[in-house]
Amino acid sequence: MRKRILVAALYIRVSTDKQEELSxxxxxRLLLEYAKxxxxxxAEEHIYMENGISGRKADKRPKFQQMIAAAKSEEHPFDxxxxxxxxxxxxxxxxxxxxxxMLRNKCHVDVVSISEPLIEGPFGGLxxxxxxxMDEFYSIRLSGDVMRGMTENALRGAYQCRPPLGYRIPxxxxxxxxxxxxxxxxxxxxxxxxxxxxxxxxxxxYLNSLGLKTSHGKPFEKRSLEYILQNPGYAGDIRWNRVNxxxxxxxxxxxxxxxxxxxxxxxxxxLFLEAQKRYQAEYHPKNAxxxxxxxxxxxxxxxxxxxxxxxxxxxxxRKTIPDTFTFQCYGYLKGKCTHNCYVKEEExxxxxxxxxxxxxxxxxxxxxxxxxxxxDKGKNKELDxxxxxxxRLAQKEARAREAYMDGIDTKEDYRKNKERLQQERVELxxxxxxxxxxxxxxxxxxxxxxxxxxxxxxxxSDSFSAQQKNAALKSIVxxxxxxxxxxxxxxxxxxxxxxETLDL
Length: 504
Ligand SMILES: [Zn+2]
Hints:
Strand content: 5-15%
Radius of gyration: 35 Å
Distance between the termini: 71 Å
Bound molecules: zinc ion
Number of strands: 15
CATH superfamily of the domain at 6-140: Resolvase, N-terminal catalytic domain
């Protein structure tokens, strides 16, 4: 009986978990050999090779998805998918069965493992499933071994890192011990958070008002408190495998490893769990909203008059009327500024527009000239060097004077030295003055007022987005300082030396 020539697709995947792994190229070579000896043609465009994804974490398999899509397509580009082992094809038995039966029954595409014999007859399917089940079992067992190995490493290695607030490591590789006064702060944090239901922001402000510092000796921030509140170390555990050290991204919590540590706990497990419960209940990951939705035309321009930090915007969604914005000092939100510098857009928006109108009416306005950045950098570097030289010169002058007073130098030596140094000083000061002087442009008030008027037109118009209005305003205004107590704003205009192109 002459068999029909089949067209084969190859699916190649490496599982990094496994010890006895075949490289992608070896898998490909074996699959091609198998196809040749079984009268199959391999379509070059249907060789699907995944790049280094582990068997247990295979939720993102772009090539696999492409291959399934091709198999489902009208053209029926191949009759069979060759894999080295079934464990390459799917991450578990259920998935394997779902895909295989779909491929066989709906697309008439077979999946063949070239290293595991497919047994014909009534038990064939059953044995195939047993093979898959063994694969899955092996994969789970192996990741168990991997976990155990990592935990051992964790227990040995975790204590080599910097200890968190509340602990110190007395000597290299020693088990951490409690620093009593810091441990008190940790207990207070958990107690106020869990038992007094204090918010993280309020807690941050409270700790800073007491002058307490983090383990880095800095004021507390929201994120330092979040780190403390989520650190199981305080309940005597150690945590491992939480952050990808290359990308600094948090791994999926299912991959974190927590085990009992050898160090003393500062708080009880119950208190720690209560804190986790509250944190999880209140934690809302930031929705990735398109910029247009979250941006106000004043975004990034308003500054707190008390601390100079930016006011961050907050969108208030209403059902019947369009979203409204409020602005608040970012430093206050982080617990670092004591001024609750807060304002609604319906208050600040018209105030800014009125200030622009006022400038146009008066026909003149104070502004600075902004040089292009690259030029500025070079200039600043040169200035820094010159100023350092000037400081050094002052030291030299002092030393020359001391040498004369101590009788080391004669009066004549001192006079000569003084003259030489004085000459140097005059030259240096002249250079610095030249650099520091802004180029005196011809009065550009007309240009500046023209720009303000154009920007005002854009802000008032309905045909520009908030982002476009924001870009327009940022092309003439450096910052708007808002004073909550006086309900007053100061607008700082600038004129770009080389006009920035507006990206509208
Ligand atoms: Zn502030």
